[in-house]
Amino acid sequence: MAKKLNKVDVVTVGVGWAGGIIASELTKAGLKVVGLERGEERTTEDFQMVHDEYRYAIRYELMQDLSKETITFRNSLNEQALPMRQYGAFLIGTGVGGAGAHWNGDTWFFSPYDFEIKSMTDKKYGKNKLPKEYTLQDWGITYDELAPYYHQFEKMAGTSGELNPLRPERTEEYPTPPMKSTPILDRYMEAAKKLKLHPFRQPSANISEVYKNPDGQTLNQCQYCGFCEKFGCEYGAKSSPNVTVIPTALKTGNFELRTHANVTGIIHDGNKATGVRYVDVQTGEEFDQLADVVVLTSYTLNNTRLLLQSELGRPYNPETGTGVIGKNYCYQITAVATGFFKERFNAAMGAGSLGTTLDDYNNDNFDHSDLDFIHGGSITMKQLGKRPINENGAPSGTPRWGKEFKAESIKWFNRSIPVTSQGASMPHRNNYLSLDPTYKDAYGNPLLRMTYDFTKQDQALYKYITARCAEILTEMGAEVVEPKELTEHFDIVPAQNDHITGGVIMGADPETSALNNYLQMWDVDNVFVIGASAFAHNGGYNPTGTVGALAYRAAEGILKYREQKGQLVKRESSNKLA
């Protein structure tokens, strides 16, 4: 029998960027918030001396233990899904800070095209540009509506960057200047300009100078140590929930953080949620945390799983195209070409978001009339900081072991440089999330089942963008340029890209979306679902900036919901904030 706990104003499920922002904003407004996190507490002090590639980048110390909880995967509806036992295509974080503790720090605005992609594509190219099996739809919000929340996220995070010449003019400057440049990035910039492209220094959460944010939290200057992705920052220089919004929430005295609390379901009565049930993973005890408002702020996959498991919302059915929970699951198409140079570069120094990028082949910035795909991807050269286990590439034909392999690995370690693209992913009728009918977790609950495969859209976009990456490397003077090929079918392993979206998507129509533009459920109005699970497709950028912006807007929506005493929060027809 679960023990009932006293009701609070709000309970969040997960304490990463989304949960931290909700906690910070609502507790500053005087609400009592409980944050439930299934992992352990993590602060800057916990990341001291973490420069251990094997422990964190190979054995995934900061990620969910797949031997205790995993998902199942298949490519198509007629296959048997099997449990994922090894990380590769994406990483499921755990612990306070979530993925925000171990991200690289790329902090992007999605484009105006992304938010109205269906309307804009139909208007320019006709309604048959993509076949009907692609479930493309607008997000129910515009770029102009979301822009103020993007700026709010940047000011909290201290984002470093410079203007993108191919985007709408910013209404506010970046809080901090762009990061340092390097010979590698200067060479990329020069080559791109020779090709008549428009490169710029990318927005970064590895901030360029000491910064105090509006909440009074101080972030330190990046040390360019090269240990960002899959690592926590020991300097407190990477914008993360651990050094920004979580301390802000705790400082109010209105926030209670409970770790080792694994939420197994949402308690509800009809069309109202009354709280959540969770298990203390250390003692095995069950608790019901009652709350006026339930906010799901966990990873994309877990937000979907909790709703399906709790029988909230209408599960998506790919055969009929009806339902919304699990719909529009998207990946991200990572196009890569590697250049091998005669010169040596100091590639060991770097940072997660130390890079130069261009948008000439992203969004609808180029004409797709004669192309068999839409959208595109940002094309970037980064200096992440090379590490010896994962990054010892050599040209094709090099033996994979032995004396020659060792010699070639050493030769090319500081001479090989990739150009990569974050390619957009469009939703397809047969790519979706559901509960597995066979496999269960330690508590007897069904595992989440992922059904996903590359589409013709993916393959066409990948081929086009990879060729553009190779052109830039050729212009840079690479001795050898090797584009990477896309596999025929998607697989969990090897590693490809961490950015997954969809499953609990937002929109303007309850028939085709699960959430309104405040991320409030149409069907259960005191449940808000925040994260990349709300994206109706995946764009050509990293998703975190958009997750943060939507979280700030959702926090405003929750306050409006309480003021209006339990009604759906509506947008005014004039497109101004309600």
TrEMBL record:
Pfam families, per database record: GMC_oxred_C, GMC_oxred_N
Residues covered by region (Disordered): 160-181
GO MF annotation terms: flavin adenine dinucleotide binding; oxidoreductase activity, acting on CH-OH group of donors
Domain Glucose-methanol-choline oxidoreductase C-terminal: 427-551
Domain Glucose-methanol-choline oxidoreductase N-terminal: 217-330
Listed SUPFAM superfamilies: FAD-linked reductases, C-terminal domain (SSF54373), FAD/NAD(P)-binding domain (SSF51905)
Keyword terms: FAD, Flavoprotein, Oxidoreductase
Origin superkingdom: Bacteria
Name of protein: GMC family oxidoreductase
Family to which this protein belongs: Belongs to the GMC oxidoreductase family.
